């Protein structure tokens, strides 16, 4: 006898993982294009996409700076002068296409979790270099231990990453003319008769001037007699 399906099976739904959002600016986009251009030796779309995948792997691993420009400009990591050298105008259309693809979630299918690469043909005596792809003149590899585990934090898969473009707000520099009033437009305040005192040149009251005392040297002093009462 077949059992009736449980309620939990009926109510179960596929849960899609929540994407982690990373903001980027026009400057970050330029940094991504610079890394793809100079590191892949101006190669092709596959070479650009491979380097772009490494940049995004580093960004989402948490072990590197939290912005695209921070990843690309990190010292002794990418090509010297990657932030200052001139990018050929002829390469711009293909670079724009590759940058849009990477920021839109596309990755090189063979690069996988690789966060490192070097010029193709070079050899190094390290046992932890697990090569996964060759593209654009570079050999891409993951660092793995003897047990096969990654030695670096694993990057997020592309389907768990959402790139959010943030335009940089600029302050308007438009200058407006300064209008100054003319002489006939300036109001002249009228005096208040209740609070304004008038000053007259002619005194309105007499001023008493003290006269000098007479001298007492030639004056006669009359004697004064005192009469005792009751005597």
Structure, explained:
Keywords: Hydrolase. This protein is α+β, with helices and mostly antiparallel strands. It is built from five helices and five strands, in the order αβααααββββ. It has helices at residues 7-11, 26-39, 45-61, 68-72, 92-103, and strands at 20-24, 116-119, 129-135, 138-143, 161-165. Helix 2 (26-39) crosses helix 3, helix 2 (26-39) crosses helix 5 and helix 3 (45-61) runs parallel beside helix 5 (92-103). The longest helix is centred in the N-terminal third of the chain and has 17 residues, at 45-61.
Helix content: 10-25%
Largest pleated sheet? 3 strands, antiparallel
Compute the separation of the termini in Å. Answer: 162 Å
Number of DSSP E strands: 5
Strand content: 5-15%
Spatial order of the strands in the main sheet?
Answer: 2-4-3
What is the molecular shape?
elongated
| Helix-strand pattern | HEHHHHEEEE
Structural class assignment: alpha+beta
Number of helices: 5
Radius of gyration: 47 Å
How confident is the prediction overall: mean pLDDT?
80
Q: Poorly predicted ranges (pLDDT <50, ≥5 residues)?
A: 1-8, 170-176, 196-201, 224-231
Question: What is the secondary structure topology, with strand pairs?
Answer:
Blueprint (H helix, E strand, L loop, with lengths): L6 H5 L8 E5 L1 H14 L5 H17 L6 H5 L19 H12 L12 E4 L9 E7 L2 E6 L17 E5 L66
Parallel strand pairs: 1-5
Antiparallel strand pairs: 2-4, 3-4
Helix pairs in contact: 2-3, 2-5, 3-5
GO molecular function, one term: hydrolase activity
InterPro entries: Cell_wall_hydrolase_SleB, SleB_dom1
Keywords: Hydrolase
């Amino acid at each position: 006898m077949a059992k009736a399906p449980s309620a939990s099976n009926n109510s179960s739904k596929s849960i899609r993982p929540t994407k982690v959002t990373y903001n980027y600016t026009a400057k970050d986009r330029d940094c991504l294009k610079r890394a793809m251009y100079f590191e892949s030796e101006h190669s092709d779309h596959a070479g650009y996409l491979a380097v772009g995948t490494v940049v995004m792997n580093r960004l989402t691993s948490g072990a590197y700076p939290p912005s695209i420009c921070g990843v690309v400009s990190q010292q002794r990591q990418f090509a010297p002068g990657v932030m200052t050298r001139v990018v050929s105008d002829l390469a711009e259309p293909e670079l724009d296409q590759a940058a849009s693809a990477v920021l839109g979630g596309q990755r090189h299918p063979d690069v996988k979790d690789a966060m490192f690469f070097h010029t193709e043909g070079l050899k190094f005596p390290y046992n932890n270099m697990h090569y996964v792809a060759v593209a654009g003149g570079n050999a891409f590899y993951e660092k793995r231990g003897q047990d096969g585990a990654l030695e670096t934090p694993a990057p997020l898969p592309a389907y768990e990453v959402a790139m959010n473009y943030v335009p940089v707000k600029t302050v308007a520099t438009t200058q407006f003319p300064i209008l100054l009033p003319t002489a006939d437009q300036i109001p002249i305040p009228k005096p208040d008769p209740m609070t304004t005192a008038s000053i007259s040149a002619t005194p309105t009251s007499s001023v008493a001037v003290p006269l000098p005392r007479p001298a007492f040297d030639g004056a006669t002093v009359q004697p004064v007699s005192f009469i005792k009462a009751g005597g």
